[in-house]
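Researcher: Sequence of Alkaline phosphatase follows. Predict its structure.
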Amino acid sequence: MDRRQFLKLSAALGATLAWGCASVQPSSSGWRERRDLYPQGVASGDPDFNSALLWTRRPYTDGRDGATLLVEVAEDPAFTRVVATASARVQAASDWTSRVLVADLQPAREYWYRFVDEEGNGSRIGRTLTSPAHDDARPARFAFVSCQNICEGAQNAYRKMIFEDERAAPGERIGFVLHLGDFIYEVVQVPSQVKNGHRYDRVITFPITFEHGKAVAKNRFTVPGSLDDYRALYHAYLQDPDIQDARARFPFVAMWDNHEFSWQGWQSIQEFGAGLEPAQTLKVAANQAWFEYQPARVSPPGASLDTFAAPHVVDAPVTTFDDDGLGQEPNNLAAIDSLIAYRALRWGRHIDLLLTDQRSFRSRDPGSRDEINPLFEGDTLGFVPETLARQLDGGRDYADGHPPATLSFGDKHIPNYRAKEAAQTMLGAKQKTWFLERLRSAQGTWKIWGNSLGTPDWRVDPQHLPPTLAKWPNEDFAVMATGDWGATYHERAEIFDTVRDAGITGFAIVSGDRHSFWAGYAAKALPPAAFEPVGVTFVTGSISAPGTVEANEHNVKQDDPLRPLYLASPGGGPSQATINLLLRHGVRSALEYAKRGDRTKAYAVRNPDMAPHLAFVDMGGHGYSTVRVDATTMVTEFVCIPRPIARSPGTDGGPLRYRVRHEIALWQAGERPQMRQSVVEGDAGLSV
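Model: Prediction complete. Tokens:
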């Protein structure tokens, strides 16, 4: 790009342009660090090979509407070699945040940056990186994370990540952190909503106050009611020292999940168990706050250097949907189009990164509708028959256009309310077209799909339950959960068929949301259907949000006959997560281990047809994951830490539970990928 093109780009991103200097010189800003005046620190995001997007917040309380900062970018942390400077505005209308696009940088370089106000009061110093040029063949490495909750846990995973990266060889350091959503949790609790001050093992804290919040979910939680409430979340989260330090060290590439807007929200609609609530004003507010606080290369309509230019919308019922489930109410369309976050980035020769938005354009989850409830009256297992899940997902497209007239579970039957509706979509028509076109045209060695929701099936085999525990009505497999890609069979198959038919190799999926670690193969179907993997798929554990194992420890009673499926203490020892065996190896393996505590015997009775798509499951894992790629190999490591209840006092983030490596050689078109697994450190327990 030339200077004129960068000017256009910076204007589209709502960013000041800082142009690289022809001459390199020492700083003359008189900077002196005043972190208290920049309480949310600094950040950079979405780097490319010749520019970086920088961010800070400098609030003023003296009644002014705006101020001017100086940004400096240098080749060294002492700022003796400053290569770019610019004046950047901060305004009350943008909550005093600043976005600066620094252009004319060198590829694959390390830079330092800082902001200075008119009196010489400076931000902390940040570090960022530019990507390698598109033909740069050197290996590339990044981390991916999701689900951090400052009210319920500590962000020790970031401290561990920083500690290890600072000690890594320069060629093995992390290039960027891919944050796959739930950067904030918009559901908070006030003291009156917390019994005994705890949730599971966690002491609940109250660092966030909503001026316009409202109680939801039978007064279990409080959620934002305004733009200022969403901003209050970012104010608090970015004062967490470990989140702030991570953003100061690494460029972040961010995609939202649900909690950046609403817990069970989709499009601009909220659900809290009492029907659908139109929330167009809050969707726009959530998008605006995300834009203000995430330095991402996304362009809101009518963007300027001063404000988000939020469209005027009202909260109107969304009652009419097109054939893809997209609500046609004008305010709904304006709200979800107020910020388009799906995008693609390139990192050297080996990474084409495609980021998709799973919340703004999806159709309603067909399994969340009230019509389904009569089928599960009196059910104690909580599993959904796989055939039923496929019928719900496929709608009129099920069985090549031959859906059943009724939906059944055991001896219960209801009319098939999905029989005339289109198959579920997670991406929506427009985004899916963009995604498939970009996937077909990707030139990087590895085509990495970053999305907030996991793709592996949540499959279980309750047909093997002993009659003394429960009776499953048929020989059908079941799914433990719906609502993400694991039960979005039709659209997932469309994507995976595109990979197969286009002869795409190096296809890998990285995701979050499940608060657990998963590794395996990307396949549209499991036995008895043909199992034909077209890529590999990984889910990272949460940074700090509680997971299933912790919930089970508190919610599944000791005398519950089904407890051995989820937890067991063979020989009176510590509790172990048999749910990992249940998902990876089947009912018989979980029950055998719960009875005798012998892994060999548990594996001997595994169900080989249940989960050939899985190589690893840890439903209690917290931490982060890293990916290293080169011309021939992809290596994904799970870095699991102990349950992050309290902040680690040291600089290393505390001990490790385990480090597990998954190595995949690049395969040829028509071949199946092969994954080789090794436990590098610690004990992965029942996860393999």
